[in-house]
Amino acid sequence: MQQKLGKQLDAMKSDILKDFPDEDPEILLLHLICDRYGIKRPKHKPKVQHQHEEIAQSRPFFHSETSLHVADMGFSEVEVKTRSPRPCPRTKMNTESILIEKLHSPSDHTMISSNTITAQCVEDDAWRLEESMQCIQSNQARVAGTVARLRTQLRGKFISQIPLLMNSVLTDVDRYWLVGKLRPWNLNAGEVVVTQGEVGDTLYIIERGQCEIVINGVTVDTINREGFFGELAVMYASPRSATVRAKTEVTLLSLSKSDLISTISEDKMEELAIVARARLFTNVPLLSALSLKKKEIVTASLKLDRWRDGMVLARQGHMISGDRRRMYIVLDGECLKEVIPSSFHDEEAGVETIGHGRYFNMFAMWYNCPCGATITTIGNVTTLSISYDELNHICTRETRVLKEAMTKTLRKDKVEIDKCLKLEGETMTSIRHAMGMHLFKLLFLNLHMENIAYNANALALVCEQSKEVTFKMWDPIFTKGELYDTVYILETGGISEHESDIETLRDEDELGDVGKCIHHTAPGTCFGTLCLQGKDQNVPTSTAAASQDTLMLSIPGDVLRRMLRNGSLT
Length: 570
Hints:
Blueprint: H1 2-5, H2 7-19, H3 25-37, H4 51-56, E1 66-68, E2 78-80, H5 95-103, H6 114-160, H7 172-181, E3 183-187, E4 192-194, E5 199-200, E6 202-208, E7 211-215, E8 218-223, E9 228-229, E10 238-239, E11 243-246, E12 250-256, H8 257-263, H9 266-280, H10 292-300, E13 303-307, E14 312-314, E15 326-339, E16 350-354, E17 359-360, H11 362-367, E18 374-387, H12 388-410, H13 414-421, H14 426-446, H15 450-453, H16 456-465, E19 467-471, E20 476-478, E21 486-492, E22 495-498, H17 502-510, E23 518-520, E24 526-527, E25 543-546, E26 550-556, H18 557-565
Antiparallel strand pairs: 1-2, 3-12, 4-11, 5-10, 6-9, 6-12, 7-8, 7-11, 13-18, 14-18, 15-16, 15-17, 15-18, 19-26, 20-25, 21-24, 21-26, 22-23, 22-25
């Protein structure tokens, strides 16, 4: 150390001894160098070379070209060349060889101050830090790119799960471009995304968190991650059917109608419009339970009509038949719906405006009952419609194929063949079940039990416990003063009600409008709901009988009360 540093070591001693009076500066310097480069401290002193050999074999210590004056040693001037480039931090470095290189360097450092040595160490550390930061930044860029690719793939998966944007119309390339149109939104718990009744044209996908659906102030469902809402809004600017608000902190992805139009070709937009029409059936109870394939079959049978302002599409109390026995769905425009008080109809009287996605004449088409309201167009209106014969043809064709296949399988087994001939197709069964669910929904809405009315599982449980009952003409439904513990819901037919006995009821009914009978023909009309308050509560104050062959849904009162008590319906 003395040979290497010469007088410089003496200059360093005074600096070091100020802070470390009890330590040997040479040992401290050696320890500092070893600790800095993470190597073991050498046990033997490095071999001392001759001065002239040192000059000949010197390796420059500085990083820039300069000259070292060593006048005290008798030499004129020594040229110091630039050091070779430092190895990259990512390369495995031999720190021991670096230290030996420094210790065995033949250069005379007598004129080098301790500050210069310290500066060189700091410079080396700064260089290595800069190189490390560049490596980190490069790695961060690669990680960010990987995260971006994963996010794009995940959002592409979200889009592919939306029925309107599935593989039937759009390609992977189309969905890739749509992913680029998605706009993220961050909302806190309790913030409203869309409001019921407001017109919107944006689809939302939940990327993180949960949202809840609120209809008429009642929370009816929760949407989790990867769920979506407002699907049809990107095709038809229509009023929102429900309010959606954040249940937790959420991240939403939005896609507007303009985004879709700017990305998808006109031909594919027309195909999407056909798919969207099938998706409209989700809001129509009659067709909501059909599979997507069945909905597409029904969509192909839909009739598109355009109406001028002031056209009456349905009139309250009128029977419709043949091709006019149709259910309508408003595709574009608005209609005025009017319900006037009548003894023949139980629908709530009033006037309202119905627009895109709303339907009318569903009961009149399916149950062959009088129209429940008068519908008049406001301005130009476009509707989709399907008749009972067209829907029945789809159902019977399916049933016919099923029966033929089973008849060939059963061959000569007449008993099984007779059972087979009574079978219904899948479509017909789905429609009947969906309509039964809808009738029970109306029942609980009338009883102000919205939490059950909007709970699909609860309605399905009630349907399982119910059964269809047929009443012949003038069969009594209930008699004045006689306790009965059953809830009835009218499906088809008609019921006459009078405050006296059955004989008086028949006489009054024959008088028609002059008589004092109340006539019930609207599907969904319910009787016996007082039994929900207790089995002794349902004592009728009037008599009711079937005025024609009538089909009703019935469910025992004790079953409903038990289900309400044990929480099965909540």
